[in-house]
């Protein structure tokens, strides 16, 4: 790709997205390409306005982008870590964060409703301030601070100094173990929503715009994402994606046969979402058109959904053994 404006980037996205959405990895590589280019444009715009960055920095993505698990539509979850702490640097990178959010919005990525974006001071800090904030989240754990910590641990650098976020994640993991927070973190994420009823039927939405559709994000993907994140934290694995975390797990955490099964099933889920999801817009992208599934595919999806709680129970027992 050559020099683009945000609007031209949006056009490029529209041209490429349909073909890329046939394959999970190709789609996420396209998202990375688009986001990286949007960030490059943002950096150049802020340079024209405020000059060169006053210090080195890392721009990182979180959520499904951080985990390399985006569907056709995806909102924004991102932050900035800058090296030297000063008022000048804080103002500069907050301005850059807001520019990036606007650029990504124009490109086709909705703003984050929860404000998890680099234009928010909570997610745009110096390296030292980030370290202090992470320690505070761990030392005074509440539902909200643990949620913030879990979001951060899915972070992945897209531009700048990759080492900054790797160091912070390693520091956070050490502190999580020191304070024995794995069980609290598991409780924070594992509100399981049943996807299959007692009679073997899909538990689809009963009213609203998605009536008759299956919420594949909450009822199928989340149990795997959240359980595997805890297993990765247990071993201080800093990988962000569920698949790469599974691949890095040791036999001590999970037997190889089970790990390979979960890896296969999670990948199948990601592709089922692409093949049979309703991709009309961001909200609808979380729902599966089960009526399009063959009898064999329905059985596959049901088996995968049923295995999610089994994985959760396995992780729960493992965490409870921790001293």
List the main descriptive attributes of the protein structure presented here:
Beta Polymerase, domain 2; 323 residues; two-stranded antiparallel sheet; 2 domains; alpha+beta; 6 strands
Note down, in words, how this protein is organized.
With 323 residues, the chain is α+β, with helices and mostly antiparallel strands. It folds into two domains: 6-179, Beta Polymerase, domain 2 (2-Layer Sandwich), CATH 3.30.460.10; 186-320. It is 59% helix and 7% strand. The chain is built from twelve helices and six strands. The chain has helices at residues 6-20, 24-50, 63-66, 87-107, 127-139, 143-153, 162-178, 182-189, 216-234, 242-248, 256-276, 295-320; strands at residues 57-61, 78-82, 124-126, 156-160, 214-215, 287-288. A four-stranded mixed β-sheet has the order 3-2-1-4, sandwiched between helices. Strands 5-6 form a two-stranded antiparallel sheet. Helix 6 (143-153) crosses helix 8 (182-189). The protein is globular and about 65 Å long. The model has no long low-confidence stretch (mean pLDDT 93).
H and E order? HHEHEHEHHEHHEHHHEH
Widest sheet: strand ordering: 3-2-1-4
Q: Which homologous superfamily in CATH is the superfamily of the largest domain?
A: Beta Polymerase, domain 2
Describe the biggest sheet? 4 strands, mixed
Distance between termini? 52 Å
Average pLDDT: 93
List segments where confidence is low: pLDDT < 50 over at least 5 consecutive residues.
none
Helix content bin: 55-70%
Q: Which structural category fits the helices and strands?
A: alpha+beta
Q: Beta-sheet strand percentage?
A: 5-15%
* Tally of DSSP helical segments: 12
What is the correct CATH architecture of the largest domain?
Answer: 2-Layer Sandwich
């Amino acid at each position: 790709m050559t020099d683009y404006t945000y609007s031209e980037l949006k056009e490029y996205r529209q041209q490429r997205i349909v073909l890329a959405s046939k394959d999970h990895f190709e789609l996420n590589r396209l998202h990375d390409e688009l986001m990286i280019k949007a960030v490059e444009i943002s950096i150049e715009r802020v340079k024209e306005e405020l000059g060169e960055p006053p210090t080195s920095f890392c721009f990182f993505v979180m959520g499904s982008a951080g985990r390399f698990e985006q569907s056709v539509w995806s909102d924004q979850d991102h932050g900035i870590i800058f090296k030297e702490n000063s008022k000048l640097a804080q103002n500069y990178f907050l301005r850059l964060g807001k520019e990036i959010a606007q650029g990504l919005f124009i490109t086709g990525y909705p703003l984050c409703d929860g404000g998890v974006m680099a234009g928010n001071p909570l997610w745009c800090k110096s390296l030292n301030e980030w370290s202090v904030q992470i320690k505070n989240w761990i030392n005074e754990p509440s539902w909200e601070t643990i949620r913030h910590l879990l979001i951060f641990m899915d972070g992945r650098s897209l531009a700048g100094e990759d080492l900054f976020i790797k160091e912070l994640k390693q520091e956070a993991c050490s502190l999580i173990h020191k304070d024995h927070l794995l069980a609290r973190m598991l409780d924070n994420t594992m509100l399981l929503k049943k996807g299959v009823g007692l009679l073997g039927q899909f538990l689809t939405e009963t009213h609203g715009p998605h009536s008759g559709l299956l919420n594949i994000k909450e009822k199928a993907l989340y149990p795997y994402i959240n359980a595997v994140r805890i297993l990765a934290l247990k071993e201080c694995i800093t990988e962000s994606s569920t698949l790469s975390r599974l691949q890095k797990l040791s036999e001590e955490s999970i037997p190889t046969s089970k790990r390979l099964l979960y890896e296969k099933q999670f990948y199948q889920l990601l592709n089922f979402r692409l093949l049979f999801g309703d991709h009309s817009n961001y909200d609808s992208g979380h729902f599966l058109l089960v009526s399009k599934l063959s009898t064999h595919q329905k059985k596959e999806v049901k088996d995968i959904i049923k295995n999610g709680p089994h994985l959760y129970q396995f992780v729960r027992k493992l965490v409870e053994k921790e001293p």
